[in-house]
Prior knowledge:
Keywords: DNA-binding. InterPro entries: AlkZ-like. One of its GO terms (molecular function) is DNA binding. It comes from Nocardia jiangsuensis. This is Winged helix DNA-binding domain-containing protein. Helix 5 crosses helix 12. The protein is built from 18 helices and 16 strands. By secondary structure, it is α+β, with helices and mostly antiparallel strands. The protein folds into two domains: 1-276, no CATH class; 280-370, no CATH class.
Amino acid sequence: MSGTVLRLSAEQVFAWRLRRQFLVEPAASAVEVVRRLAGVQAQVASAAELAVALRSAEPAADAVASALGARKVLRTWAMRGTLHVLTAEQAAAALALVASARTWEKPVWTRTFGATPEQITALGAALTEILADAALSRAELVAAVAARPGLAHLDEQLRSGWGAVLKPLAWQGILCHGPAQGSRVTFTSPARAVTGWPGLPEPDAAAATLIPAYLGAYGPATPEAFDAWLSRNSLRKTVLRRWFAELGTALTPVEVDGRGCFARTEDLDELAAARPVREVLLLGGFDQYVLGPGTTDTALVPAAHRAAVSRPGGWISPVLVRDGRVTGTWERDGDDIVVTPFEKAPTAKQLAAAAARLATATGATLRARIG
């Protein structure tokens, strides 16, 4: 590939991503899926379970919950401030990079969430002690913090289901989600939640871990696409570009339909050989296939239909994928999968095959129809 820039089509990229993300050749375990995808969004637990099941050779109910219970992965606020399930190494890298933006030290954050940087520091010190040997429910955590001098006034913020005040502590590796107590969430330290917790690395080392992991699932991509996926573009552009540059020969510039991007050098031959995947897929809400490149990628999600995919309140719709592109949305109505295509509808045979795969993943009896 030396001497000339590898020129790829979007169709080749989509075909490569579908295979890399286990949507063509399924994975053997939930942990394998989580690692390959550099994390699975778990703001909605059922969405994470479906994302893994659709990529598994033998889908199992509650595979993500089982991996969490076995301390093989952990659940924490990471990319874009949303809950993700990640392996220990990738969680540490993602948190270190998100934390490097220091968003909680900015005046706008203090005005919005009512906690100063000094209060976050004090809260972090308290929770480092409180959670070292415990997993506490939110109510228990609030009570423990309220007993500490100078922190009782954070009661209301700590009780918020959105966890705004807790997120900076998650990004600093102080807390994460612990074992569920029935329907109640608990919080604990990452070292108690997952086997082999390495602690947070320096940002430069974290970038050397996470950028290749991202490109290995969602590449080729630009530094800006990586930053949008990670932090909603909160990182300094000079630092971001330096991280890409310092990966040296591990990355190679390529073009995708004329747009400059970076790919992992080890993936170039597979990318060049990729051929379109004609299978029709029904992917669940918040699926990483969409979240990785983001809904602003008009090659993946048509600009005219973005609002149907990225809905108010940060809700990402279940999608119909055809030839690697998002070509519609769907919703479940009992045993019916009601599909709303953006343009030309798939054939009845294609829809039936996609519904059968979804049925296998969910353990339900499903049939698809055009809405």
